Give the backbone structure.
Amino acid sequence: MDSDDKTIRLHAYLARAGVASRRACEALILQGHVQVNGSLVTEMGVKVGPSDEVRFDGAVVSPAANLVYIALNKPPGYLCASSDGYERKLAIDLLKPFFRERLFNVGRLDYRSSGLILFTNDGAFDRRISHPSAMIEKEYVVETDREIPDLLLENFKKGVVVEGETYRLKEYRKTSPFMVHIVLIEGKNREIRKVLDSSGVRPLRLHRIRIGGINLEGLSSGEYRLLTEAEVASLSALAGGNS
């Protein structure tokens, strides 16, 4: 491995190359997908530098020269993943015809949900935005099959425990008996669905309309746009500079 002061950890190198997020790259290393200078690496802590050859699944990868940041209006029925064993449609496939860079989603929306999802090839950006302490607001519009009890929403605001996990919204605004805007900070896996389901309320539509100051204005379902430099800087600032 390169020994100069420009070395970085292998999972960070892979993330900068756009292979996946840092956390996902850690798993890929452990699963035996990565070689450095012809040797298989399956442990954490390895560092690499400019003179090292890094291969992912046999293909040479290197840090991206062109960093891109994308807002996509994901339709329902698309999975936020790089692959799927059940051959479901992937959100990334909506972007592949237009970008040569290796892109990955920042956070996720579940298969049935729709709305705003970010994509990038910048692993450091993903780490900042996805960090638990980032405290970035995410706003959802939720339509349900029955009237949403005010008590349920008030309890959700105070903190609801479902299957041993505590879920808490930041704020909400009901626009009809069957529709509510919900703002989350942490955005744990399937949080809104789990809380509503626990009270017998079934979400018919769960649509994310905002992440921080980024919204879906002008984007129809399946469409995307590049984030501006100001938007990228704004999200990073909201994330508090996590590295």
